[in-house]
Amino acid sequence: MLLDRGGIAALVDRQATPTAEEAREWAREGLDGYVNQLYRAVKSRRDGHPPTAALDEQESVGWLLTTVFALHGRLRPYNKYLAWELATHPLPPPWNDALAPAYVGTHPLTLFPMVAGLARERGHGDILDSWGPDLDLILRFAG
After folding, report:
1. Is the pTM of this model over 0.70?
2. Domain ranges in the chain?
3. Which of helix, strand or coil describes residue 66?
4. Which of 38, 87, 105, 126: CA 20 to 30 A from 136?
C-alpha cells in the first residue's frame, strides 16, 4: 500500500500471514488430505492402474503445498505465483527445489518422506500415525 490513513495495511498484512493456530490447523488438514490422496494413488498403483494412480498423485499436489507452506507458517500461493513466491520469499532448503513447479507436479509421491519428516518435526506425527499400516504402503511406493 502506498498510503494508508485508516489501518487498512494492518488488515491486509493480517490476511497475508496466518496465526500460529491457523497454520497448525491448515497443516494438519493439509497433511491428512495429502496422505489420503497418496493412499488412493498407491492402491491404484498396487492394483495395476498407473493412469489412475497418476491422477491421484496430481490431486495430492495441492494438499502437499498447503501442508508444507502451513508447516512454515505461510499461506500456500496460487499455482500461478508459486515460482515467484519461492524466488521472492524462499523457504529453507531443501524446500525451494522440492516445491519448484516443474518438480513438485511430477514428484508428489517421492516427496512424501520429506513432508512426513517435516510434519513429525513440527509435532504432527499423530496425523501420520493415525493412518496405521496404510502409511507403510505409501512409504513402500514413495521409495
Report:
1. yes
2. 19-142
3. helix
4. 105
C-alpha span between 31 and 18 (Å, rounded):
17
3-state SS assignment for residue 47? coil
Lookup result for grid cell 498396487: 46
pLDDT at 98: 98
Long-range CB contacts for residues 70-79, cutoff 8 Å, separation at least 24: 70/18, 70/23, 70/24, 70/26, 70/27, 70/30, 71/23, 71/27, 71/118, 71/119, 71/122, 71/124, 73/17, 73/18, 73/20, 73/23, 74/17, 74/18, 74/23, 75/16, 75/17, 75/18
Question: For the residues of 87-129, what is the DSSP string, one character each?
Answer: HHSPPSTTHHHHT-HHHHTT-TTTTHHHHHHHHHHTT-HHHHH
Residue count of the chain, please give it. 143
pLDDT of residue 103: 97
* The three three-digit cell numbers of residue 47, written as one number: 492394483
